[in-house]
Amino acid sequence: MMWAKRKSTTTVWVGILIAFSVASLAFTAGEGIAAQQEKHGTQRPFEYVIDDFTVYPIPEIPKPAKGKPFRDPTFHTEIVRISDRKQDKLTAWGKTLGMILNEYARVDPENCDGSRAVFKSPKDSGRWFVYDLDTFEMIVDIYKQARDKKLVIGELEPRWDRYDPNVFYFSQKGALFKYDISNKKIEMVRDFKKDFGEDVYYLRNRYEGRPSFDSRYWAFRADGGRSRGWKTLAWVWYDLRENTILGSRQDPPGSDHVSMGMFGNFFCVGTMGHVAYNLEDFQAGKVSIKLSPTTTHADLAITAEGREAMVYQNGKNDWIEMTYLDTGQTVKLISYTHKTTWDEMLKGGAGLHISGLSIGTPGWVLVSWYGGAPRKPFSWQHQALFMLELKENPRVWRVAHTHCPWAEATAKDYWAEAFAAINAAGTRVYWGSNWDEAEKETRTIEVYSANLPETWYSDLMGRENAEEARRATRKQIEEKLGSRAAEAYDKLLARSAN
């Protein structure tokens, strides 16, 4: 059951609601949705803002205290601040770190059961921290643990294991390592210098990649160091379970990053035009799927049919599009100037990031749009988080304001782009925000999350359609990754009431 706003500010009924007094369900500051429902013995209907492209002002809300949820007054989602750099004692070289945030839109901060998340401080030697999501306590300083083992030379790129909530993997010094939070044990999984030579300095996705859904298949760049001009020496298709290299490309063309497809059957390469290889073509040096040569920000996602697609911004025609990896068919989704103008967009600096991580809610991606002056959006997209449906003429569900402006409308600040990530279950969104304090030299950034309504997926899709989309996705997982991965998908779905 739900409320919805569509194409205007007029509220209309969608579905059948049980009659009750809304006044009796007034939201209490600092009390979460679950606590509200338990107190009142019923579920409060959520007011979705869908296909409403009003340029809403960004509300003047003081920076929230850590761990105190509040409801977004415009879009109605529950927001909570997760970090407090001073309270959490996040320091480097004796000073409090200036920012902490999720790594990127294409990397899920959460572990497999949603109990912990990993965040980073990007400008202080790549500091990484694990937080408990029940208490919001910082429980592991990953950088310190790795440094004590003399492993740190650059970004750690931690990636959680699909089956063990205590385990994540990270890469350093040309090798892949496994870290177990329960015993703080670090062990080497494989030293890729033995495969590709001592000149391998970095083994990495380079910020924007991830393994297959089951953590079995990985895409890596084996990069040389200064003596090799920081050149990529090889692309590597790796099977973690068997500890086997399935294929490699020596001296590959230039790339920005690499990532494995969710089902483990595509090696995806990000450049100014993304390309994807199946294993046979990868070994033969042939491109399987080539997207527009002007694609920039993008992510992999699963459609409601259970098919894998690359969702991207096409700089040639100024649309967000998706291309199916199995056929190469392209579908136009929404234009940059949908319900706005270029003049309005450019006043605030147009730019976006895409997060397709929510395999538990196939058929939707999260878009985070940056730009705009402090508390002053010039178009509906500025400082906005919204869910975008993956089909022609898609619906747009507006989730929250990021409260993360630039000091001036066009004064670019990369770390204030609020590149939000949605978790695999499709229940939470994470982003870093300066909370309307935008001066680049003095602003600080903390981690925030938006807790999505528990039943949003079945509310928006309809229960039968939601179940069918998940069955199609589970079928692909079982066929391509096996029964254990399919069981892990079932556990993921159990975390949501959808």
What does this entry look like structurally?
- With 498 residues, the chain is α+β, with helices and mostly antiparallel strands.
- It contains 8 helices and 33 strands.
- Helix 7 packs antiparallel against helix 8.
- The protein is globular and about 55 Å long.
- The N and C termini lie close together (11 Å).
What portion of the residues fall into strands of 2 or more residues? 25-35%
Kindly report the oligomeric state of this protein: single chain
Please give the number of β-strands.
33
Rough outline: globular
What is the count of helical runs?
Answer: 8
* Helix/strand class: alpha+beta
**Mind telling me the C-alpha Rg?**
22 Å
Mean pLDDT, rounded to whole units?
88
The rounded distance between the terminal residues' Cα atoms is 11 Å
The level of helicity is 10-25%
Strand order of the largest sheet: 2-1-3-30-29-28-27
Q: Which runs of at least 5 residues are low in confidence (pLDDT < 50)?
A: 5-42
Tell me about the largest β-sheet.
7 strands, mixed
